[in-house]
Structure formats: C-alpha cells, structure tokens
Amino acid sequence: MRKIAVISFMFIFVLSSMAFAELKVGVVDMQKALDECDAGKAAAKKIEQEYKEMQEKIQKKREELQNMQTELNSQSGVLSEQAKQNKMAEYQDKLKDLKRMIEDSNAELQRQERSYVNRIAEDLTQVVRELGKELKYDIIMEKQEAGIIHNSETVDITPIVIERYNNEWNAENN
C-alpha cells in the first residue's frame, strides 16, 4: 500500500513538473521602463524645467524679502514705531506668501509627476499585456513588485473559484 502511495506521489510530481515546464513566464521592470522610455525621459525633463522655473520665482521672492529686511534694519532708527510695525507686518505677510508659494509649488510638481507617471505606467501596462498575448506568455510579472500584469486564460482559475464559492454559498443559503 505504501509503494502505491509513493508511486502515485511520484507520478503526480512528474505530471506537475511537466506542466510547469510548458509554462511561459516573463518579467518586466516597470520602474526601469518608466525611467528609460522616451515618454518617461520627456516627462522628467519637463518636470525638471518646471522645477527650475519655480525655483527662479522663489529666488526672486527671497531676494525681495532680503532687501526688505535690509531696508527695515537700516531704517529702524529713523522710522516711527507705527511705521516699523507696518513694515514688519508687510515683511511677515510676504514671508507667509513665500512659504505658501513654496508649498504650493512642491505640491503642484508632485501632482504633475504623479500624473505623468500614472499615464505612462498605464500605457506601459497595456503594451505589456499586448506583448504577452502576441508572444504567448502565460504570466508576466513585474520585477520590483512581483505583481502579475498578464496571465493567459489557461492559468486563470477565477471562474473555478467563483463557481465553487457560488455552489457552497447556495448550499448554505437555500
């Protein structure tokens, strides 16, 4: 009896090994694809240009604030207390505006970058799916995340899982 079990186990093992030998699996590094594709390079260049433009605007505001600070320091002995308070309030308002501008600029750049990345990633995923079908890959996994991007219907057990779950659920609820 024990020999039959061992032989059965070996037979099942051999059959399953044969099934895996026929499985065509691919791997894609989506981050590398994002970084190295033309659209990714163009998006990175555009974000970099927008970053430089925003930095220039921020630098101009900083210089204005530095000039205001210098002016305030040099005139502090000449100005009345009310004039000093007014200039200081104006300086504080401009400083708040600068901080808000920096925060808004960073948030906008991050939003734009996410938008570019999401759009390109969707396009790349579609290309991977089409290649998977065209080259007859059974499974294509993302290298970094090990997520499945494409699988052939022959390895998709979703219909079987649904059918089994439905049978069990209907048996319990009828």
Structural summary, described in words:
The structure is a single chain. With 174 residues, the chain is mostly helical. It has helices at residues 2-21, 30-36, 38-75, 81-134, 158-173; strands spanning 25-28, 139-142, 148-151. It is elongated. It is built from 5 helices and 3 strands; from the N terminus they run αβαααββα. It has a 3-stranded mixed sheet with strand order 1-2-3, covered by helices on one side. Helix 2 (30-36) packs across helix 3 (38-75) and helix 3 packs antiparallel against helix 4. The model has no long low-confidence stretch (mean pLDDT 76).
Largest sheet: 3 strands, mixed
- Please trace the helix and strand order, writing H or E for each element: HEHHHEEH
Low-pLDDT stretches: none
N→C terminal distance: 42 Å
Report the count of strand segments.
3
What gyration radius follows from the Cα positions, in whole Å?
Answer: 32 Å
What can be said about this structure in brief?
By secondary structure, the chain is mainly alpha-helical.
List keywords for this structure.
174 residues, mainly alpha, three-stranded mixed beta sheet, single chain
Compile the SSE list and pairings:
Blueprint: H1 2-21, E1 25-28, H2 30-36, H3 38-75, H4 81-134, E2 139-142, E3 148-151, H5 158-173
Parallel strand pairs: 1-2
Antiparallel strand pairs: 2-3
